Every structure is written in structure tokens, then in C-alpha cells.
Amino acid sequence: MKILVTGAAGFIGFSFSENILKNTEIQIIGIDNLNPYYDVKLKEKRLDILKGFKNFKFFDEDIINYEELDEIFNLEKPDLIVHLAAQAGVRYSLENPHVYEYSNNLGTLNIFELAKKYGIKRVIFASSSSVYGGNEKTPFLESDNVDKPVSLYAATKKYNELIAHVYNHLYGIEMIGLRFFTVYGEFGRPDMAYWKFTKNILEEKPIDVYNYGKMKRDFTYISDIVEGIKSAVFLSKKIDYEIFNLGGDNPIELEYMISLIEKETGKKAIKNYLPVQEGDVLITMADLTKSKENLKYYPNICIEEGIKRFVKWYIQNRY
Ligand SMILES: NC(=O)c1ccc[n+]([C@@H]2O[C@H](COP(=O)([O-])OP(=O)(O)OC[C@H]3O[C@@H](n4cnc5c(N)ncnc54)[C@H](O)[C@@H]3O)[C@@H](O)[C@H]2O)c1
């Protein structure tokens, strides 16, 4: 079996690929454009690890380039796609709207078109909890109305879900969309709050705490997300089009997360309290009934353990 992973040098793409390469004989074909949204050295470091496996092959390519992607598909003939490449980040989409249009919308369209052209049976793609927008009803259910996104990033993820439905309806490609909820952990993303907080607390610099620390997030540890993606990959029953929440099953306040980082670093945070930022939502909380039933997805790393592992990794690798 050959799996094509887009965004393979990214946080989740790397973590998923490494797990598959370590534990199976499956071949991974990675694609990533190594864009400089955050420290490219971190992406290169992840890639170096993946390149240590004989079953890994990498293409430095932008998914907006249809012709070049076509050549890769023609050469590699993958059996299944895990599509994770995207311009991530809610706040960045306020200032850089066009890159979201290119990478998330056009890029995804290209991947789905090539899945059609090369007769690929199943595509698993990354959606996001941000599609729930200002949903005030918690927990968030996959069947909730998600027609009112509050950021361009969220709107592109909703668009991905919509066109996935079209490609299933018209061409019968099995489409599985995974709505990830605030993923964190080793080899994570430097643009995310848990990383910035850890860095600044260790360096005794102030941290910006939005919504006065009252924001609640359903933080999900990376190994749980990897298990969720693997379940979608190996699911034996036939799927048409399905969306699944992958959350941590326990939303916590930002303030609590900061206290855990303080405990693990042994340092006190210097907090700069700020109002809520535009485009941000106040709470995310996944209903996992559907994922538990269909994907046997049971997240098992609690925030206390996850932050402990992350801070340990950060101190050893980045500090
Ligand atoms: N991390 C989270 O909390 C989270 C939450 C919800 C959804 N997601 C989604 O999960 C997926 C993976 O996220 P991540 O946290 O690993 O982010 P990431 O930024 O670490 O990984 C994405 C990778 O895609 C690559 N990429 C971006 N645009 C590209 C393009 N046009 N062509 C080729 N490669 C491109 C980037 O270089 C990067 O390595 C994304 O689709 C993201 O929107 C992530």
C-alpha cells in the first residue's frame, strides 16, 4: 500500500507519517512546499527524520501546481491520500487572505481532481473545529449547522468539506473529513499559543493572554490525532462522505494550560491580558459520539500529561 501525504513536513503530516513508517511496511509519498509560515528548520528537521525510513519518498512541491502534481501521481500511483497541506492559522488569515485561497481552496481542488483522474478509492482530508464558528451550543456535533464561519481560514475548511461531498457524489471517491480540535505536542507548531507560552515563560518574557485567559479549547494531543487518522485510513467498511470530530474530550481554560506550563517549567508567567481577538471563537468542544462509534476514537492523553511531554520535549530540543 502506498499513501500520499500532503503537508508531510508539517506537524500532523510528519507525526502521522512517522508513526506509519515505524509501525508498518506501507510506503509514504510526502509532498510539502516547506513554506516559511514558521521556522523552516523545524520542517526540515521533521523531514530528516522521515528520510531515515526506506519507505519514505519526498517531493518538494506546491499543491497549487496541478501539472507538477499530476506528474507525481502518474509516477507514484498512490492507493490512498491523506491531505493535510494547508495554510493553517486563524489570525494569519486576517492579514494574508490570498494564501488561504490558493493553498486551501485551489490546492485541495487539485488533490481531489487528481484523486478522480487516478482512480483513488479514499481521500482523508483535514478540516477544523473552526468551521463551527461562533456556535454557542456545546458540544459541537458534526450535524450542527456550520454556515456561519468567522474567519477566512474556517471558510476554506468548510469549502473543502463541500467539494469533498461533490467528488463523492459525482465520482464515488470515499471522502473522510476530520475536524481537528487544537492539536498540540512534540514537534508542534511555533505559531500556536502553547508553544509561544512555553517559549516565553522559559525566556522570562511576557505572554499575550487573549480574552483574559477565559478562552476554552478542546486541546487534543498529537498521538490521539494520529490514531484518529489511522482509524480513517484502515477503516474496512465502505464510506461515502463522512465528517468526524477529533477532539480531546475535555475543554480547558487557557489560564489552566498556562498554570500547567508554569508547573512543568518551574517558572512564573508574566501575563499580558488582552481582549478576544477578531476571528477567534470563545470555546471549542467536540462531541465524539460519532468518532467513538465509527473510528473507535478514544483520546487518552489528558492535558496534564500532554503539556508535561511537550515541555520536556521543548526543553530538550528547542531551548
Ligand atoms: N494543528 C491544529 O491544531 C489543527 C487544527 C485544525 C485543523 N488543522 C489542519 O490540519 C492540517 C495540518 O496542520 P498542521 O498543524 O500540521 O500545520 P502545519 O502548518 O504544521 O502543516 C501544514 C504543512 O503544509 C505545507 N503546505 C502549506 N501550503 C502548502 C502548499 N500550497 N503546497 C504544499 N504544501 C503546503 C506547509 O509547509 C506545512 O508543512 C492543516 O490542514 C490544518 O489546517 C490543524
From TrEMBL:
It comes from Methanococcus vannielii (strain ATCC 35089 / DSM 1224 / JCM 13029 / OCM 148 / SB). Keywords: NAD. Pfam families: Epimerase. Residues 3-247 form the NAD-dependent epimerase/dehydratase domain. The keyword NAD applies. This is NAD-dependent epimerase/dehydratase.
